[in-house]
Design brief:
By secondary structure, the protein is of the alpha/beta class. Helices cover about 40% and strands about 15% of the residues. Strand 5, helix 7 and strand 6 form a beta-alpha-beta unit. The longest helix is centred in the last third of the chain and has 18 residues. The radius of gyration is 22 Å and the shape is elongated.
Length: about 280
């Protein structure tokens, strides 16, 4: 009896913590993408100096390549650390398949009450706010046409398709010279290019500015959008357009400019996190 009591005292569970753990869920990171994630990390530290953050990654390919933790691993670690509430803030742009899978994992993780933050473009007023932030990048009609490059989803039945189509319609109504297309899905880029050729855009515009609507303008931008072979750039150049894409220099290195380099986008994600933290206080 004395021995069992001693073992029981040694195996006492840690004291449960009242505050929620905070998880930042990113698609994934490469050496080039770390600059964008560092921008958000610094903003977190400035706004929440007394908090520590867990990071999880939703891309299986990136996790395996760089040995990064999944959301399941991070939630298990959080539970072991004595938390019973968790706030998960994704760094996803659209509420697509990866966001849905993230939410499903969090909702069914036993032993934890998980509060999911919203994506950057989760609501239509969020869409308008981000478009206002991007407006300074747009070419005026007398200089050329603008093409918003979205990621898209290959799944025809994915509910996020309504967001892509709604954004496309909003751009058409708001701006006289802004188009949109996705790398995969709808609005379909091949269909758009056919329309541009059929409607003879080249007689009206000499230049098209491709603007990546992605958190990090990485391989999709470098290869699918602006690559030297079989890219949006080469297809549009073949139609007679001069093509450009916004760039930015950060820590002495120039790269294509993704949404993560816009201060308003960082502020948007911080606002999503703040709202979810406030919500968690009532439960």
């Amino acid at each position: 009896m004395h021995q069992n009591g001693y073992i029981g005292r040694k195996m006492r569970l840690p004291k449960l913590k009242k505050k929620p753990a905070i998880v930042i869920a990113a698609f994934g990171t490469t050496n080039r993408a770390k600059t964008v994630l560092n921008i958000f990390q610094k903003a977190l530290e400035k706004n929440y100096p007394d908090e520590s953050f867990y990071w999880a990654y939703t891309s299986e390919i990136v996790r395996k390549r760089l040995n990064l933790p999944s959301i399941q691993q991070i939630l298990a670690q959080i539970e072991a650390d004595g938390y019973r509430k968790v706030v998960v803030q994704p760094l996803h742009i659209f509420p697509g398949t990866e966001y849905q899978q993230l939410a499903e994992t969090c909702n069914f993780f036993p032993g934890l009450r998980v509060f999911m933050g919203e994506t950057l473009l989760h609501r239509w007023n969020f869409v308008r706010e981000i478009l206002k932030a991007i407006e300074p990048e747009l070419l005026p009609p007398e200089e050329g046409c603008n093409l918003m490059a979205l990621h898209g989803t290959p799944l025809a039945a994915d509910p996020v398709n309504i967001v892509y189509m709604g954004l496309d319609l909003m751009l058409e109504k708001l701006y006289p010279n802004v188009l949109s297309a996705t790398v995969e899905g709808i609005p379909n880029f091949q269909a758009l290019f056919a329309s541009i050729k059929r409607d003879d855009y080249a007689s009206k515009y000499k230049k098209i500015k491709i603007i990546p609507m992605m958190y990090f303008a990485g391989l999709h931008t470098e290869e699918d959008l602006m690559g030297k072979e079989d890219s949006w750039r080469t297809a549009l150049e073949a139609l007679g357009f001069k093509i450009e894409c916004p760039t930015i220099t950060y820590n002495g290195k120039e790269s294509y400019k993704g949404l993560g380099h816009y201060p308003e986008v960082t502020e948007g994600f911080l606002n999503r996190l703040k709202r979810t933290l406030e919500l968690s206080e009532h439960y």
